[in-house]
Design brief:
Layout: E1 24-27, H1 31-42, E2 47-50, E3 66-67, H2 79-95, E4 100-109, H3 116-125, H4 137-150, E5 160-161, H5 164-169, E6 178-187, H6 190-208, E7 212-215, E8 218-223, E9 226-231, E10 239-241, E11 245-248, H7 254-262, E12 272-279, H8 282-288, E13 292-296, E14 302-308, E15 311-315, E16 319-320, H9 332-345, E17 356-364, E18 382-386, E19 393-397, H10 404-418, H11 456-465, H12 471-478, H13 489-501, H14 507-525
Parallel strand pairs: 1-2, 1-11, 2-7, 4-13, 11-19
Antiparallel strand pairs: 3-6, 4-6, 5-6, 8-9, 9-10, 12-15, 12-16, 12-17, 13-14, 14-15, 18-19
């Protein structure tokens, strides 16, 4: 069947003289898929991005939202990964200031030499001690010194040790005697960043006359050497193509995607589940101020207590997970673990389960490993080739939010090299601005959507340019209202009406969409709305 009228991806037949224009197909519109799409478009490639859900709706939406070097990776001797991450951190701070901001991290310690022997053994053997010992101030300072050396040239402040008065004002548990300080970055809205990457790719493609399209809520069907893209919302016609190459960027769904492509089982990935909670409890937010706390749980797992708007984000856990990543939900045991940690560090706060406004859990697409604990599994990314298919196919394994751009640079060079082209352009100095309105879009309706800081005109323009198709796309990943204290049913009703006006909902579907959103907020995030 021919492509729908809304697509600008070339329809390529195997016998056509236009085979060289065949698009590179990226399966997955998360942070890595979006970054790679942008890098390929910058190099003149035609690109089609397909996702079974919304853009940025997988692991991207469930991270700790940090842009960091990965201080703890030094204990496993992975200085190369830390160095790469620090370079990318500084690059994002410079090129994407609308999304990434510097953030101070404070590391409280309860002893001087604690954990030294275990960390030296871990560094030499890669194995964690059976019984973790809290890291002491000497070990933390050594690690931060190494961290600072690897990030030499950075504009961020150097690590330091806080004075006694500053430590006293933090009102930490009495066992904490010293506090070290260092800086990394925070990307509070990774979902908006993903939309910005795709927006930049779309604009570059339009300027250069190449093809670029994003198909969300779509499934792939294999027909010999042809792939059929089917819209699961049944609002677009099926689309057939024979891609020049395929990159499987579907994160923790990677093995399932490969099996869908050729019917063979795949065992590249072994995901781990990370849970976070968000609270608007004033005492906790006041206690941490504008700095984050980086602390250890009793099991040795590092946990962050992060300023997040007017609230506080706490996470994360790291547990093996082999279920459907879309169904990963925080357990009560995990929430209790995080609450207990907060109260153990800041006893005056007295955080309770009723203070938790919402929680979320995501699955990390880590490489399959025989490591004794999930924390020991490498966070490095790789592109693994799958042979025996009609087109070159690679799967992205691992990776971090911080290194999405360097992964894309590496991936573009690999894919284009296989297709007989060179990646002559890299994005190392290309800014990543906020998504911009289309020229001539003059919807200036200044009426504010109830419970938000967005106007109706802004929302309508955003719907038109950012691949919005459902109510949860708006609530969770474009307007970021999931994290706003004032979110209410009235907000959902008004946004559903805007989707109706843009013909993304029928009148018969509007009320059901609102009801389903309320149920999802409760079931998946533990978020209960006011009437």
């Amino acid at each position: 069947m021919p492509p729908s009228k809304t697509s600008n991806v070339p329809d390529v037949d195997a016998s056509s003289s236009r085979v060289s224009r065949a698009p590179i197909l990226i399966l997955g519109a998360g942070i890595n898929g979006a970054s790679l799409a942008r890098e390929l478009v910058l190099n003149g490639a035609n690109v089609l991005v397909v996702d079974r859900a919304d853009i940025g709706s997988g692991t991207t939406a469930y991270s700790s939202r940090l842009i960091h070097g990965g201080l703890r990776y030094l204990e496993y001797g992975d200085a190369a990964l830390v160095r790469e991450s620090l370079e990318e951190r500084d690059r994002l701070l410079r090129l994407a200031p609308d999304f990434v901001r510097p953030l101070e991290f404070r590391v409280p310690t309860s002893s001087r030499l604690g954990g030294s022997i275990g960390s030296i053994r871990k560094l030499l053997t890669g194995k964690s001690p059976r019984k973790p010992t809290p890291r002491g101030s000497w070990l933390v300072r050594v690690g931060l010194g190494w961290y600072a050396w690897l990030s030499r040239g950075s504009s961020l402040p150097q690590p330091s040790t806080l004075g006694g008065n500053a430590v006293a004002r933090m009102r930490l548990a009495p066992r904490y005697r010293q506090v070290c300080s260092y800086y990394d970055g925070q990307m509070q809205h990774a979902e908006r960043f993903t939309a910005a990457l795709l927006d930049d790719a779309r604009r570059v493609a339009a300027e250069r006359g190449t093809a670029f399209d994003v198909r969300t809520y779509s499934e792939i069907e294999v027909r010999d050497a042809t792939l059929v893209v089917r819209d699961t919302l049944q609002r677009r016609e099926p689309y057939e193509l024979r891609p020049a190459a395929v990159v499987n960027a579907s994160g923790p769904w990677g093995d399932r995607t490969l099996q869908q492509l050729d019917g063979r089982e795949s065992h590249l990935l072994a995901g781990t589940k990370g849970t976070h909670l968000l609270t608007f409890q004033p005492a906790l937010r006041k206690a941490i101020g504008e700095a984050a706390l980086y602390v250890e749980a009793e099991d040795g797992r590092p946990v962050f207590i992060l300023p997040f708007g007017v609230g506080t984000l706490v996470g994360t856990t790291d547990l093996p997970y082999d279920g459907d990543p879309a169904k990963a939900v925080a357990s009560e045991a995990e929430l209790a673990y995080l609450i207990d940690l907060v109260n153990g560090v800041l006893p005056d706060v007295r955080l309770s389960r009723s203070d938790v406004t919402l929680h979320y859990a995501g699955v990390r697409p880590l490489p399959r490993s025989d490591a004794a604990v999930p924390a020991a599994v490498s966070r490095r990314h790789s592109l693994v080739e799958r042979t025996g298919l009609p087109w070159p196919v690679w799967t992205i394994v691992g990776g971090k939010l911080t290194t999405c751009r360097s992964l894309a640079e590496e991936g573009a060079a690999l894919v284009l090299g296989r297709l007989g082209r060179s990646a002559s352009i890299v994005s190392r100095e290309r800014p990543i601005p906020l998504p911009r309105d289309e020229e001539g879009d003059t919807d200036n309706d200044a009426a504010q959507v109830v419970g938000t800081t967005w106007t109706r005109g802004q929302v309508r323009r955003l719907i038109r340019r950012e691949y919005v198709r459902r109510l949860d796309d708006l609530i969770e990943r474009r307007l970021m209202l999931l994290f706003e204290p004032q979110l209410s049913r009235a907000t959902l009703d008004e946004l559903a009406s805007l989707l109706l006006a843009e013909r993304l909902l029928d009148e018969s579907q509007r009320q059901a969409a609102v009801t389903q959103m309320i149920e999802r907020l409760s079931r998946h995030f533990g978020r209960e709305l006011d009437a």
